[in-house]
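Escalated from tier 1: zinc ion holo job.
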Amino acid sequence: MIEATCHCGAVHITLETAPAEVTDCNCSICRRYGALWAYDSPRRVQVTPPEGATDIYVRGERLIEFHRCKTCGCVTHWTAVDTSIDRMGVNVRLMPPEVLAAARVKHLDGADTWTERYDS
Ligand SMILES: [Zn+2]
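Tier 2 regenerated the structure:
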């Protein structure tokens, strides 16, 4: 079990396993948030509390809801607007630093080509 928590502790997110890979995306929203994403099925991720503790930002295409803690402002996770999509993102920056240190970072060119690359 791996926990991600916002700074004030209002939002807890629990993953079953530590992410082996995290995504560093340079799209217009991710580069501003400075988030690193671990993707998983919403069925395997527990968000506590699930409602009310976060504000939501839905960007232009209205595909994804970005959640941030109402109290401390940390960007915690995103979920698909279409709930049949079996994928969500959790901000690895909210996990213990050693979890990020152990993960491989994938650079996603979400701003342009949607190609991926690794540092090495
Ligand atoms: Zn908070």
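The helical segments are 30-33, 97-102.
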